[in-house]
Amino acid sequence: MIEFILNGLPVKAEEGWTVLETAKFYGLEIPTLCHHEGLTEFGGCRLCLVEIGEPPKSKLVTSCTYPVEAGLVVRTDTNRVWAARRMMIELMISVAPGSKVLQDLASKFGVTRVRFTPRNEECILCGLCVRMCAEQMDGRAIGFQQRGHKRKISTPFDIRSEECRLCGACMYICPACQLRCQGPNAETALCNACLTMDPTCLEHYDELQCWMYDAGRCGTCVREKKS
Fold first, then answer.
1. How many domains does the chain have?
2. Which of 105, 106, 171, 209 has the fewest CB atoms lying closer than 10 Å?
3. Is the residue at 126 inside a domain?
4. Angle at CA of residue 161, ends 155 and 167, nearest 5°
5. How far is the CA of 158 from the CAs of 141, 202, 211, in angstroms?
6. pLDDT digits over 165-187, tens only?
7. How does DSSP classify residue 39?
């Protein structure tokens, strides 16, 4: 067993576990998008970022690909982590504003504006469809093409692949294919209909406190409501 510190508490993990797997084992929620059980890890969406090490030398890493190691210090919900997650959500919504999955994430993490021009490309390059096709359906009909801002997912030579069996697994797993409540012709990039207010304990403690016990125990959000 590997012993390390997770959100200030000593924990143990099996050899070969990632930080994400260990957090889930202990009941801690870390948001993910490109991660899916049964598929290889990709680490492309950056939503599962956590902070490792002690400030000022701490750094952000993707928890789905980072293996636990003895003596590691991990914090899952610091101000720095939430700021990075919000930025990634904002960037992805500018690419695929029609995605219900992304709109729900925006509301959950308090993203109330999109500072980038919406591109409506409806593909955030999470790679779920590529891995699903290759690893679960054994099709390998689609894959990544080109690099940089020209990168996309398509079939070889952009023509119908003979390996495709029209199973629909790629559409089933795609987060951009789940349409937001307002439909394809929404007037705004953000919905925020399910907006969750920012946890106030972040401002006081530099990390969430509610994961340790029921919401409000640390007192900051209660004081916020009274004032």
1. 3
2. 171
3. yes
4. 100
5. 11, 47, 47
6. 999 999 999 999 999 888 878 88
7. S
Q: Please, which residues have CB within 8 angstroms of residue 134's CB and are 6 or more apart in sequence?
A: 140, 143
Domain extent, residue 207, equals 200-227
Enter the DSSP assignment of 10.
E
End-to-end CA distance of the chain: 47
Nearest Cα to 43, choosing from 131, 156, 112, 133?
A: 131
> Which pairing describes strands 9-13 and 143-145: parallel, antiparallel, or unpaired?
unpaired
Which domain CATH number covers 144?
A: 3.30.70
Cβ neighbours of residue 47 under 8 Å, at least 6 residues apart? 31, 32, 33, 34, 85, 88, 89, 105
Q: What is the pTM of this model?
A: 0.83
Q: What angle do CA 17, 18, 21 make, to 5 degrees?
A: 80
Task: Note whether 173 and 213 are same-domain residues.
Answer: no
Read off the tokens for 53: 């090490």
H/E segment holding residue 49: strand 49-52
151-169: per-residue pLDDT in tens? 999 999 999 999 999 999 9
Residues 100, 144 within the same domain = yes
Structure tokens at 119: 């591109």
Structure tokens at 51: 């902070």
Whether the CB-CB separation of 178 and 99 falls below 8 Å is answered with yes
Dist. CA 24–CA 26, nearest whole Å: 5
Are 61 and 99 within one domain? no
Please indicate, yes or no, whether residues 91 and 152 belong to a single structural domain of this protein. Answer: yes
The answer as to whether 187 is a domain residue is no
